[in-house]
Amino acid sequence: MRIALASFGSLGDLHPILAIAVAAQARGHDVAVAASPNYEDNVRRAGVEFYPLRPAIPWDPIRLAYYFDMRRGPERLLREVAFAELPNTHADLRSLAKGADLLVVGELLYTAPIVAEEIGIPWMNVVLAPTSFLSASDPCVLAPAPFLYPFRHLGKWIHQLAYMAGRIQGRLWAKEFFAFRRRLGLPAGPNPIFDSKHSPYGTLAMFPSFFAKAQTDWPSSTLQTGFPYFEQPSLPVDRVVADFLGSGEPPLVFTLGSIVAHFEPDFYREAYEAAIRLQRRAILLTGCGAIRIGRSNPKILAVDYARLHEILPRSAAVVHAGGIGTCGEALRAGIPSVIIPFSFDQPDNAQRMKRLGVAEILSRRSIKATAIAIKLEHVLRDPSYTLRARNCANQINNDPTMDLVLDKMESLRASVE
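Above: the chain sequence. Below: its structure as tokens.
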């Protein structure tokens, strides 16, 4: 079977798609992955055929901060990036899917069902974080409207009303999508943000049930698996990082991921000071050379990048932005987190980690060394945070995630032959 996979977004969005691709190749399937041209090397290093996919995420720090605004960021990303370049995205997805037996896509690739129908193949969508389901029975923290979350215990109705309003607003955001469908001779169709982004052939909910239980208002075609871990197979271990890990007590790790680091430089300077205050060793993952600390200390290592699955199991705690991939790695490593959420799914992921008892949350408006140090000291001194994180790790290590995913894809292919 030839499987075409596509990812829009950051490395955190791409890595789960690559995890599926590598596992599918190991089972003997032919795979190809479409992603931003910025990530061509990442895909090819995994031994996977690459296709370019537009639009690309802008890397200018000012533009990144603009799209990561807590309240307006999702609207801006949808209107000005995802929907604005629909013809290009559609053309690139068609090139990828030509000759494929199955199309599998991540978030924001709204022309995938059109492409699949044009080519005559089934399609599936991948959901990496619970917030994508917009469930009223398990309400998420909505980045544009976090004030709704405290009312979740009043019942479904308040979030059902909020989603009704969101549907109206979403149709306004998606006017370019409806115009594009009409240019193809198709009816406007349902709301792509709320009502048609999940495939009737199968939706993969790629997080474990202890993180978010399946809900009755999820699509009936949903298969819940577990976190999709990807380990870049051909990259050597960084000797500087390995030597640092082996030269003393488990360090603290500070990271904002592959995107946020570009527009939040103060975080790393405050993180440096927090580690000094706590008298702890630390690793600062500053992201693609985006940040230079300007100071040096033998107990603190600043590097552009290190693979989390290699360093977190040997670390004491991690401070991060709450991306679902980093949450999954922290849980797999069995260490506590301090989470500073910025936008999109991060506020909801952070709240779920806190409810699990494995994390504390710090507002992005409170990125100061003192505040970071206080939160870290709390999760380090109370052993229950680490105990609960290790319990999560034990559950993760027994998850047959990729077997479930590939079994589903193979059974789908067999059912349509």
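The chain has a mean pLDDT of 91.
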